[in-house]
Amino acid sequence: YKKSARVVGDVIGKYHPHGDSAVYDTIVRMAQPFSLRYMLVDGQGNFGSIDGDSAAAMRYTEIRLAKIA
Fold first, then answer.
1. 60 an active-site residue?
2. Which residues contact 16 (CB under 8 A, 6 or more apart)?
3. Where does the Topo IIA-type catalytic domain lie (predicted)?
4. String of b and e for 7-25 (b: at least 16 CB within 10 Å)?
């Protein structure tokens, strides 16, 4: 696993220089088992709930690509 903040920083630096919130929100959505049919990101930490609880800040979560991705 790698810190989400590091992955977001790499994406902003290389591909999407318009702010970190859009990138992190997309990562969170890909890590939620209730958002997509298949989870594309395997995450550790608080990525929100189906009841509307928001995800933890990116400095508290870790991610890696799921096997399906």
1. yes
2. 22, 23
3. 1-69
4. bbeebbeeeeeeeeeebbe
Distance of CA 3 to CAs 37, 42, 50, 58, 60, Å?
A: 24, 12, 23, 7, 8
Catalytic residue among 1, 15, 24, 60: 60
Q: Is 10 helix (H, G, I), strand (E, B) or coil?
A: helix
Question: Going along 1-69, which residue ranges are E strands?
Answer: 2-3, 41-44, 62-65
Cα distances from 39 to residues 1, 24, 31, 51, 63, in angstroms, run 15, 15, 6, 18, 12
d(CA 21, CA 52): 17
